[in-house]
Amino acid sequence: MVTRVGINGFGTIGKRVADAVAAQSDMEVVGVTKTGPSFGCDLAVRKGYPLYCTFDDLSKIAAFSESGYQCNGGLSDLLSSCDIIIDCSPGKVGAENLAKYKAAGVKSIFQGGEKHALTGMSYTSSANHFENLGVDCTRVVSCNTTGLSRTLVPLQEHCLELGGIEVNCVMIRRAADPGDSSKGPINAIKPVLKVPSHHGPDLMTVSPEIAITSLAVAVPTTIMHVHAITVNLPSGHGLDTEKVIAMWNSTARVLIMNGADTRITTTAEVMELARDIGRTWGDLHEIFVWEDGVSLQSDTLYYFQAIHQESDVIPENVDAIRALMGSEADWRTSVDRTDAAIAEFNGLS
User: Fold this and answer.
1) CB of 262 within 8 A of CB of 272?
2) pTM: predicted TM-score of the whole model, two decimal places
3) How far apart are CA 145 and CA 120, in angstroms?
4) C-alpha 229: how far from its chain's center?
């Protein structure tokens, strides 16, 4: 059975989710929305994604045809033709949209810009796929929380019987996405003065067993986030630096490289590597960990990781579709299917 997927919001995340869904043999993109005619509509047309208006207002719908685009109707029309909707719209409209999805009887997936309270469920593939099976609505956590989950969940699972792990992390956040000209800082480092930052509590929405606190600063770069992470392991954990690295090497969607050996010592070089991989838009779905920045000293683990904020959540959305639709109960099987299909879509298989 093929799941019919709609994308509400064809922007930075939405266009990437659409491609990832289109790559899957068990899914079909039945439409994407834009608020009005724009250059993004050209991409939807070129990709063959049916175009809808975010609104049901007839005048707004007519504006598309007046600009030369075929518009198939408003959001209600899209909802009538899909099994599940992926909400990639700007923040602060989630509650209004959720009411529309519920009224249409359509399952929905939101992004990390919305709060956990909106859906009552949050999602990452490795942390709580099973708990999301068959639910009507969930929220794929933010790019930063997804990154934390990828590397911390395996450590937590290893140490669970010993009492689990305690985490302190500093999120060094990019100021804006590359295409966003309206945000800053431009020439400053801006601390997030709400302590803890939302990232630690957000991780606990998908993995509540992890005790974590977080701080955040915004810096004038647009290409990636960096996390500086300290993990306190319980006594008797049986790990050393090499074993931790081996653990992450066998973890899906984690990429470990030695900075000194590869000369990848900054986020600029990480993203150059991502472009060399050959995915659309030069995306890096994996969490990048510097091998020579990993150090386990007694019971304290230190490491750095880099997050491509535009793309690490993309495959998670695909896995979340299978969870909500109940079409795949095993998260590892879904991850393998998702990643293999995306690789084939990009001609990399």
Assistant:
1) no
2) 0.96
3) 16
4) 19
pLDDT of 137 reads 98
Q: Is 225 exposed, middle or buried (0-12, 13-18, 19+ CB in 10 A)?
A: buried
Report helix angle 241-249 to 143-159, nearest 10. 120
Task: Give Cα 91 distance to the centre of its chain.
Answer: 15
Q: Which residues of 276-292 are buried (b: 16+ CB within 10 A; e: fewer)?
A: eeebeebbbbbbbbbbe
Please say if 82 is a catalytic residue.
no
Taking Cα atoms as reference points, which of 95, 62, 56 lies closest to residue 79?
A: 56
Residue pointed to by tokens 């043999």: 25
- Furthest-apart CA pair in the chain: how many Å? 69
Model confidence pLDDT, tens digit, residues 47-63? 999 999 999 999 999 99
C-alpha 117/C-alpha 121 separation (Å) is 8
- Going along the chain from its start, the domains and CATH numbers come out as 3-141+313-345 (3.40.50.720), 143-307 (3.30.360.10)
Burial 243-272 (b: 16+ CB within 10 A, else e): ebbebbeebbbbbbbebeeeebeebebbbe
Q: Which of 71, 143, 159, 169 is catalytic?
A: 143
Which DSSP string do the residues of 249-281 spell out, in sequence order?
Answer: HTSTTEEEE-HHHHT--SHHHHHHHHHHHT-GG
